Amino acid sequence: MKAVLMVGHGSRDPEGNEQVRNFIDNLSNQLDPNLLVETCFLEFESPNIDEGIDNCVQKGATHIFVIPIMLLQAGHSKIHIPHAIDEAKKKYSQLTVTYGRPIGIHEQIFEICKDRLEEIGEDPSSPNNDTAVVLLGRGGSDQDANSDLYKITRLLWEKLNYKIIEPSFMGVTDPLIQEGIDRCIKLGAKKIIILPYFLFTGILIKRLENMLAMFKEQYPDHNFSLANYFGFHKRLETILIDRMEEALEGEVKMNCDTCKYRIDAMEFIDHHHHHDHEHAHQHDEVYK
Predict the structure, then answer these.
(1) What DSSP line would sit under 17-73, residue for residue?
(2) In its keyword annotation, does this UniProt entry include Lyase (predicted)?
(3) What is the pLDDT of residues 272-284, one digit of tens each?
């Protein structure tokens, strides 16, 4: 039997974890009913990925398609999930595991961003010249993921008609959101829209809502708006179904099983994501 294991990051905020579950439950209704669909998390929530694989096997799965519910390729998708897959293959010698891609740079993400701007009254095809957008990512220590946000920002600028679209991060790496806003103001923006490049709610989204009030007080002569995160968007369903179909049809374009650097890299990772307990690590403040 085939199973799809959807892997979310997990959050200390129960609402964010519940949003992931509800999203996947709804997605499951659009898939082949003979396909087992399970959800797990990397941290802060159960079941963890090891338990998720166990659940699939216990329900009769002989081939598991692991799909990361993550926006960008970073340490989790490059090292931690493949490590869990390696351990599962040792534990279940007859098990076949296919690893799918994260969301990455997908055409539909730009449509989601456009929709989120329109929801707050913007006309992305003809915006005011003094309106700027800050595309806000989580931020992390992975250079590829951080640079991908820059690429996405540029592609969004190409597709929309805003003169100013600036990338910023909530933590770990620069430019942080304060710097992004300062730059927009120096470039002449009178209205600044913060567009969160986040999948679901969590501690950081709620922190961002509080920060908005601070920015309004700090810059009384400027207008600020906060767009919604991706959330329950039909186009996000389309993206994840695309990633599932790639894996199910054997067309995955990124497969860490053949990466000669991954196994050696595990020796230098501070944590191996054994999630029978909570723990803290470098990106606790960004991946929530």
Answers:
(1) HHHHHHHHHHHHTTS-TTSEEEEEESSSSSSBHHHHHHHHHHTT-SEEEEEE--SS-
(2) yes
(3) 444 443 333 444 3
CB 132 within 8 A of CB 192: yes
Single out the residue of 159, 167, 161 nearest to residue 107, CA to CA. 159
40 in Cβ contact with 47 (< 8 Å): yes
User: Is pLDDT above 60 for 285?
Assistant: no
Residue 130: what are its φ and ψ, rounded to 5°? -100, 20
Residue at token pair 């992305």: 124
Distance CA 18, CA 29 (A): 17
DSSP string, 81-139: HHHHHHHHHHH-TT-EEEE---S-S-HHHHHHHHHHHHHTT--TTS--TTEEEEEEE--
Instruction: Specify the amino acid at residue 235.
Output: R
Q: How far is CA 226 from the centre of its chain?
A: 18
The pair of structure tokens assigned to 140 is 């992390």
Domain 107-226 fold is Rossmann fold (3.40.50)
Domain ranges of the chain: 2-104+233-266, 107-226
Overall CATH class of domain 2-104+233-266: alpha beta
pTM: 0.84
Structure confidence at residue 288 (pLDDT): 37
